[in-house]
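Notes to self after the Tuesday call (sharing in case useful).
The group wants a holo model before anyone commits to mutagenesis around the pocket. I volunteered. Ligand is alpha-D-galactopyranose. Logging inputs and output together so the record is complete.
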Amino acid sequence: MPLASQPKSIAARAPARVNLLGEHTDYTGGLVLPMAIPFHTTARISAIGGEQNVFRSAQFDGEYAEPAGSSAERSKMWSDYPVGVLRQLQQRGIVPAAFLLELSGDVPLGAGLSSSASVEVASCLAMLARSGKTLTANELALLCQRAENDYVGSPCGIMDQFAITAAQAGHALLISTRDLQFEHVAMNAGGLQEAGIVICNSHVKHSIAAGAYGERRKEVEAGQAILRTRFAGLRDLGEATLEQLQACESALTRESYKRCRHIITENARVKQARDAMMAGDAQALGKLMVQAHASQRDDFECSCAEIDFLVDTAVGLRGCLGARMTGGGFGGCTVNLVERGEFAKFCETLKDAYGARFGVAAETYVCEAVDGALADQEKGF
Ligand code: GLA
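Result:
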């Protein structure tokens, strides 16, 4: 085909994310501290003959096609994520002309590194480009979260979509999930210069669409409802104190009480982590990560034997300042703060120990914080 008559195609790209601290705080107005990591989804969109929208993925079998303008229900295929985004765009009167959307990327799947949100954000940017429209970071992230909540049926919070959209290279992103106020926190102040982030993938599959995430969320929201009734003016758990929780103890189930205790202590840890990062205190940040893991394991009860083993082993290794499970939980990855000079030895020893204990090959990824999707597009990735 002569070049001039080839269909125009536009590519958009979105990273994955790892959460440093602030787990399960993002659906009750709390604080989170993720960063974007150098794994990406690319969404390439082009015109296609006819009136169909076609969705393809290099990572999943089976293409999905529907008439442009369709409002069909979910198909329970991988394509529900980009189609859910399209439905949200349609609801806002943004209707791209018939297209072929081709997804590819290297984000580890089901590992708690937000492969779904990465697909949503990249797809959304591609479909917006085809429509000649733009959205702000807040609008984009909220739209993608709604796609996942309403169309895919997964009750996630806003952290992943927002981090993937608005992160900045070299920084973690402190997000107040109540109002989406945010602050970029440098990853290289003082002692942090000598330390970096190592992710370890346990290969225990994690799916937040599965029931446990939703169960935890209900327990947290039940506790929040009781605190709100007791303390007039309390907006959410994001501003609740341990004293307030204790005052309501007898009205909460044991589970609800423990889940809420995790949320309240976790919000406090995120604030302390931000201060530690600003002060360049890598030791303090590492300690907060270890405390966070204990709270996830004991109060939120969302860890598992493999992850606990990885965390316990990591903190005993030379150069490791802190370790914890990251993401929705029940498997997936750990995030470790490690002295740079020890990266290679740390990764090797951790993988060896895990292999010897579980007979499974863990993977490690040394990650610098990269730009979120919006900054990435602006720079013309
Ligand atoms: C998943 C969800 C997020 C958040 C985390 C837990 O990644 O998508 O919204 O709730 O779990 O912190």
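Two things stood out.
The chain has a mean pLDDT of 96.
The longest helix spans residues 254-278.
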